[in-house]
Write a structure and sequence with these properties.
The longest helix has 14 residues, at about 290-305. About 45% of the residues are buried. With about 350 residues, this protein is of the alpha/beta class. The chain has three domains: about 1-30, no CATH class; about 40-165, Elongation Factor Tu (Ef-tu), domain 3 (Beta Barrel), CATH 2.40.30.10; about 180-310, Rossmann fold (3-Layer(aba) Sandwich). The N and C termini lie close together (about 10 Å). The protein has helices at about 35-40, 145-150, 190-200, 240-245, 265-275, 290-305; strands spanning about 1-10, 20-30, 45-60, 60-70, 90-95, 120-125, 130, 135-145, 160-165, 180-185, 205-210, 245-255, 260, 280-285, 305-310, 325-330, 340, 350. The strands form four sheets. It has a seven-stranded antiparallel β-sheet. α5 runs parallel beside α6. β7 and β8 form a beta hairpin. Helices cover about 15% and strands about 35% of the residues. The radius of gyration is 20 Å and the shape is globular. Bound molecules: flavin-adenine dinucleotide (FAD) and FE2/S2 (inorganic) cluster (FES). Flavin-adenine dinucleotide (FAD) binds near residues 123, 125, 147, 187 and 315.
């Protein structure tokens, strides 16, 4: 039986965001959602982050580096146990509130920060992770698109941020594949940087295919001595962030201001046509606008290439409570042939062949 419902609004009670669930439209299957070990592991781990730096990378894009103390903000938040080592694909849920909505109590000592009216946490892929003498350092790269990210752009070194995470599952490193293609559109780039590190450490040959609307919205440091291929047919050591991680890049811009003129799917096609490989030898990982990921998923389906997508659904709670982040997936066992999974708990990484990009009717 299908039930119609929707999360239409949230009110903030000072604790975890409480959904005011007004059931109107959002349809979900009553079939049980897949158990996610990751989801069970996550619990409610909220820690204090302290801003190390918040630097502008290009127009509208910043890199925020936070040192996350082992100290939790509530009894259930693994006091003193430290920030778990994240894996590529996972994200942090950052609170734009001075008083962190922890499980149990408020963070009274955090300095006041004007949240600009943003109340719910915002999700950001982990772009980098290091351990330092002070604790775990996490990088996120974000584009300013609204009230929460505008607030983030005001953060300065020493400011406090409430950090929930690391949340979600990981990009799988497929045993029998020797190479990887990372396909990133716009702010789909950050998880690909962290993934490139994991692939380098696993000994995979990696090429990153990165697209942006125009060159000044490309959050990469370009090496002027090594221009990207204008045809997209060659991968070059043009972007420092990927060169440092052992990967060459193909760049596309919609307006042709750098690399191939066109969208990132065209760059993927040009590169693969010029550099054919056995489908079993390569895995494609992608993150970016949903229409772009749908194109990449179809491309891989036609060519018999395994593909994983990192879905960026709007998330209210990030902990499996509110059901605002559902992703329809194929399910042969289900009577209707599909069911919902939660982006925050079962994802954000999904096997592309499972995802139904068009909402199925029910
Ligand atoms: C798992 C995950 C990882 C993410 N990683 C990154 C990242 O690394 N860098 C980054 O810049 N952003 C990332 N996002 C998107 C980010 O969460 C949103 O951009 C952010 O919440 C916007 O907050 P805001 O208050 O500034 O915008 P709002 O004022 O809430 O919204 C402004 C505009 O952005 C749109 N929007 C809001 N949230 C999303 C979303 N999740 N996906 C698509 N559009 C959205 C809204 O529809 C609206 O048009 C990620 C999202 C998820 C779910
Ligand atoms: S964001 Fe609330 S259930 Fe996923």
């Amino acid at each position: 039986m299908a039930v119609s419902s929707a999360v239409a609004g949230f009110r903030d009670l000072g604790f975890a965001p409480v959904p005011e669930v007004i059931f109107t439209h959002l349809v979900y299957n009553t079939a049980p959602m897949k158990d996610s070990e990751q989801a069970q592991d996550n619990g409610c781990a909220i820690r204090r982050g302290e801003v190390v730096s918040n630097v502008s990378l290009c127009r509208e894009h910043y890199r925020l580096t936070i040192v996350v103390s082992g100290e939790g903000l509530g009894e259930r938040s693994e006091l003193g146990s430290g920030f778990p080592v994240p894996v590529a694909g996972q994200f942090v849920h950052l609170s734009p509130q001075r008083r962190a909505p922890s499980c149990d109590r408020m963070d009274e000592s955090a300095p006041a920060i004007d949240s600009g009216g943003a109340m719910l946490r915002r999700a950001f892929s982990i772009a980098g992770y290091r351990t330092t003498a002070n604790g775990a350092e996490v990088d996120v790269i974000y584009r300013v698109v609204g009230v929460g990210t505008r607030w983030m752009a005001t953060l300065r070194a020493g400011d406090s941020v409430s950090v929930l995470g690391p949340q979600g599952n990981a990009f799988p490193i497929v045993e029998d594949a020797t190479s990887a293609l990372l396909v990133a559109g716009g702010v789909g780039l950050p998880p690909m940087l962290f993934l490139a590190e994991a692939l380098r450490d696993a000994g995979r040959q990696t090429v990153a295919i990165c697209g942006a609307q125009t060159v000044d919205l490309l959050a990469l440091t370009m090496d002027e001595r090594v221009p990207p291929s204008p045809s997209g047919r060659e991968a070059t050591a043009s972007a420092d962030e990927f060169t440092e991680r052992g990967a060459n890049v193909v760049i596309s811009t919609d307006d042709g201001s750098l690399g191939l003129r066109g969208h990132v799917g065209e760059a993927l096609t040009a590169y693969c046509d010029a550099n054919p490989v056995e489908p079993d030898d390569v895995v494609v990982y992608t993150c970016g606008p949903e229409r772009m990921m749908e194109f990449v998923a179809e491309f891989c389906d036609v060519r018999g290439i395994r593909c994983y997508v990192c879905m960026e659904r709007a998330m209210a709670c990030g902990t499996g409570m509110c059901q605002s982040c559902v992703v329809p997936v194929r399910d042969e066992v289900d009577a209707e042939g599909w069911r919902y999974q939660l982006c925050c708990m079962d994802g954000p990484v999904f096997d592309a062949s499972d995802v139904l990009f068009a909402q199925p009717s029910s």
